[in-house]
Amino acid sequence: MGGMSGGGGSCGCGGGAKAQAADGASGNGADAPEISDVGCHGDARDKAREMADSDALKQLMEDYPLGPHEQPQGMCPAFGSLRVGLRMRRTATVLSGSACCVYGLTFTSHFYGARRTVGYVPFNSESLVTGALYEDIKQAMHDLADPDEYDAIIMTNLCIPTASGVPLDMLPKEINGVRIVGIDVPGFGVPTHAEAKDVLSGAVLKRARLEAEAGPVARPKDLVDDRPTVSLLGELFPADPMGIGSLIDPMGLALGPVVPVREWRELYAALDSDVCAAIHPHYVRAAEQFQKAGRRVVGSGPVGVEGTVAWLKSIGDAAGVDAEKTGAAIDRARKMISGAIASAPLKGRVQVSGYEGSELLVARVLIEAGADVPYVGTALPKSKWSQTDYEWLEAQGTHVQFRASLEQDIEAFKETDPDLVIGTTPVVQEAKENGVPGLYFTNLVSARPIFGPAGAGSLAPVLHGAMKGRERLGQMKQFFEGVGTGHAVGYGWTEVPEKKLSAKERNARARGGKATTGAGKHSELAVGKDHEGAAEETKERENSASIRTRDRIRQSAAAKGSAKRAPKTESDAEEPVPATAGGAD
Ligand code: SF4
Description:
This protein has helices spanning 44-51, 55-63, 78-87, 99-111, 125-130, 132-144, 159-164, 193-214, 239-248, 264-272, 284-292, 304-319, 323-343, 359-368, 387-395, 406-416, 425-433, 441-445, 452-467, 470-479, 503-510, 529-560, 570-574, and strands at 18-20, 34-36, 91-96, 118-120, 152-157, 174-175, 178-184, 229-233, 254-259, 275-277, 296-298, 350-354, 375-378, 399-401, 420-423, 438-440. Helix 13 (323-343) packs parallel to helix 19. Helix content is 46%, strand content 11%. It folds into 3 domains: 4-191, Nitrogenase molybdenum iron protein domain (Rossmann fold, 3-Layer(aba) Sandwich); 229-340, 3-Layer(aba) Sandwich (Rossmann fold); 344-479, Rossmann fold. By secondary structure, the protein is of the alpha/beta class.
């Protein structure tokens, strides 16, 4: 394992990579297809289809069905799994991929405050083709597997090593008692970073399940063993699990861990739960592990009154809770949430789009609070765990677009004319450019509770505050009209750029002069007769200004009695300034 210097890998993004999967240990065999332009750009999808002769790629195609757009439209998907791994205690994360990909991923991780080393196993054409990369990875695992430091090492194949078939499943399962977990997270097979979180979560849950099935495992910290528990699937705002816990408490249920987990032992506690609540519906591999462990999985979440009632009922059924107890919990929740909605009702048309996986749930909260939501776009695919929310939204007349592309989100914005857009950066940018308020889904909506009474009450004030900014945005739009448009748009402009005039040229043009560029100097004015007149005027003004300056100097010197030191001029010589009485001379 080494630093960036030994990389030499050429990124598929750049379109320059050509390699052949090697025979033997590091490849898929002699028939493996040639790899070219594999990455997040180019004709990656077709290549991926061609190469889907490996079980790993076939499984990716099945678990993460590709959508209408051809490439990921967000950040490199591997960032999702990297981030989840970096948040786990006593866990090392190692990447193998093109140097540029690894640079971008580590940069972003540290930008988001990872404060952990990201390991890197570089490759070049030779190590990729000969299979030496697999050996390098194996050696890196041996070098890193220190049981005093780590419970697990997450080894991630990025695009090129995945496409080359570097077989991480052949790595030792454990070295010095440290678990080695290999995952493939290529951009051409995992379309969003949200799904990459599932790739990692599914892989570690699988390992933990197999360990638990094989024999006794370490007891998880804070294990609840006096009541049935419900574990939650999906990254949630920190206050949300507490809110959900209080909703299920009257049913005699306790909250289990939230997956993705923060340490290895939590995986055992999660699998030990009686029910898994797939709050984020795209964690399909993780949900599958719960099912394999014999746990019931329930989709949707406790959002709004109707959503919460339906969810509590499903959880009660799955956990075998007495109907009376469930009914009491439902009545209590209904009262609290209706009260919260009544105290903060929402008015206005809102568009929702994002790539977090909670878009449908957020739309439900908004609709129950009184908003009109004509369109919800999510970058995630439809899954059986989002079916309930999908049906509910469609019944309200909301169009739900799974695997939504940026173009679809923008088209919807133009068609529905919302009062507010909640979306990804480019969608919000489009809205604001058109004078419509926008809120970033990730920063401003995901960073708030959305479940139970807290969710019902917390969003309305923020959204109303944003909607009030429409008039101000209209003024800004007017003020910046034409800025950053046409030839000034920057990248992507294909016409001949317009000549940019200097301030002097603009002034001259405004006065009717004709502006041209002088040779070898700053722009000068090739002026007509009118402008010659203007030039004379300027000269006169400059002369009179210097005369005024001389006068001031003279007066000042006279006042101080030092007239003799005042600068001499021609006019001075003709008309000497008399020394004042009592002067220094
Ligand atoms: S690893 Fe990420 S950045 Fe690199 S080619 Fe694949 S998708 Fe693109």
